[in-house]
Amino acid sequence: MIEVKHLTKRYGPNTAVEDLSFTVEDNRIYGFLGPNGAGKSTTMNIMTGYLSATEGDVLINGHSIIEEPEQAKSCIGFLPELPPLYTEMTPYEYLVFVAEIKKIRKSEIKPAVEEAIKLTGIDGVRSRLIKNLSKGYRQRVGFAEAVLGKPPVIILDEPMVGLDPLQIIEMRSLIKELGRDHTVILSSHILSEISEVCDRILIISKGRLVASGTPEELEQQMGSGRMVLNLTLRGSREACEKVLAGFEGMSCSCTGEENGEVSFRVELPKGEDVRDKLYFAFADARIPILGMTSQIASLEEVFLELTGAEKEAK
Fold this sequence. Notes:
Elements: E1 2-11, E2 14-24, E3 29-33, H1 40-47, E4 55-60, E5 63-64, H2 69-73, E6 76-79, H3 91-101, H4 106-120, H5 135-147, E7 153-157, H6 165-178, E8 183-188, H7 191-197, E9 200-205, E10 208-213, H8 215-223, E11 228-234, H9 237-244, E12 251-258, E13 261-267, H10 275-284, E14 289-295, H11 299-313
Parallel strand pairs: 3-8, 3-9, 6-7, 7-8
Antiparallel strand pairs: 1-2, 1-4, 4-5, 9-10, 11-13, 11-14, 12-13
Helix pairs in contact: 3-4, 4-5
């Protein structure tokens, strides 16, 4: 288990992370989501001991990253956004070197390296120089370094940056495989990556945790009771808008007008469902409803709503 307690990181007058607290349970995949500059990488670098915190602490399986750094780091495998690889080595040579640094027993180095190579699918390039490998395979070598020695916690900072669509699919599969036996924390600013592989999501904005939960819980949290209707009507825009104006608290926008048909996007106030009232109001106005569909807030809408203030400030 990972416990982040009131974590704060300041650079002079600038605060990158502010009073951040959360808990990560064992054997789950967590998504750390936020816009660029939100504080994700800073938090991960503190969690892994690469940076010191201004205030607060991180406990990895009960070990403080401040007071017991060696014990805490031994529980972590870390893949930074740019893996620090020695490009003049082959993947096999590099992983043997890393195993020695990780103080894996000499008798266990070869089987540990072979297991990491098999898990990450780099057996076919094990004898090639890392400098001659593609971006995708370099990421896999970094992945192999992170999982070498079977640390219980795997932390991945933007692992899919620069990968092509096929490589992204392969990386997602690797992350899901890791999630069976490890606790995985995946950082990203790309929603599709997070929602595709993660059990739970932590959304950070301006260095603060603004929401957490499963993808479904976050959608419900922001969308519960808030319904969006897509209406298609036969009539003039003015007549339709007059009917809609009779409902207080609704946000309406025209999304199309063609051949006597007009479409609206209608956002209802939280806790209200006035579809039946809308039906009868348009019927009284002799305006046929050709289509009415409803939806709740998507994960993208949740993300934009929770981080919108930061986006506007940029």
